[in-house]
Amino acid sequence: MRERDPRIVLGLHRSRYERRILTSALELGVDAIDTSFNYHGFSAHTALAAAGRGLLPRFRLSTKVGFFPADGQAEHSLDPDRLREAVEQSNRDLGRAPDLVFLHNPERSLTGSSAAVQDSLGTACAAVERAAAEGLCGGWGISSWDPRPLPGLVDGTLPRPDAVMVRAGLLAGIDALEASEALAARWDLKPAHLWGMSPFGGSATQPLWGKLDPRVFIQEPHDGLSAVQATFRAAYWLPLVGRIAVGTDSPSHLGKLVDALRYEANADNLCTYRRLLREQRDPQPL
């Protein structure tokens, strides 16, 4: 049994919800898991409760609300009553209150005038904040796949979340990185309260990781560090986050990610990489 390390959260987006990955996570010191109301065909919570029977009290558990079943598909809504109902159902299905509930991709429903958009976001945030205050969850946050619309909406009138989750890593893109940092700054959130997700851009096995050597972003010596491990470790600095939610059904893969945490970043090379991303986005006229 390894010592607990809060920097990794086991993400269950594409998980098969098997008990062995939960027991292996605990053995590796990973005692945080992240899921969502809409994962696994809207059955993620009941599947997790079944697979983790007797284990869930040992985990810090985060989930998300914002997507709802509709005619066999999923629709997004920031309606405060629907959000509240989803949090209540999450409690029932999990058999416990989540430690954290994220408002899931609020940007999906932010349309209309700026005043109406800000009001919609504020009302949704207040609904989840109220659920936390009433004990339906330990805290609340925002999980955003595309945070670009959000920083301009945040002022002193919106509730302050306990955490924000954003895309992280070499493939996140400069617009997402800068928007994530601006959003964190608006709420004065420290890196410990900023979470990363999708550190491999969707897949740790895509051909890119066999062509790119991400070890250039890690301080030497890094003998024995694989490209996948280096990619994962670099994601903690793109943007600067305190923890990353990463999905896997393989205990071996999870163990390698845990091992990668002992390495540190090459700050100069990461700064150069960000500069190159900006130059590609904003080329100077000839």
Q: Count helical runs.
A: 10
Q: Any guess at the CATH architecture? A: Alpha-Beta Barrel
General form: globular
Percent range for helical residues? 25-40%
Counting copies of identical and different chains, the oligomeric state is single chain
Percent strand equals: 15-25%
Strand order of the largest sheet: 1-2-3-6-7-8-9-10
Low-confidence stretches: none
State the end-to-end distance.
Answer: 59 Å
Order of helices and strands: EHEHHEEEHEHEEHEHHEHH
Q: What is the CA-atom radius of gyration, in angstroms?
A: 19 Å
Give a quick summary of the entry.
The protein is an alpha/beta fold and 286 residues long.
SSE layout:
Layout: E1 8-11, H1 19-27, E2 32-34, H2 39-42, H3 44-51, E3 60-65, E4 67-70, E5 73-76, H4 80-94, E6 100-104, H5 114-133, E7 140-144, E8 163-167, H6 174-186, E9 194-197, H7 208-211, H8 227-234, E10 243-247, H9 251-260, H10 267-281
Parallel strand pairs: 1-2, 1-10, 2-3, 3-6, 6-7, 7-8, 8-9, 9-10
Antiparallel strand pairs: 4-5
Helix pairs in contact: 4-5, 8-9
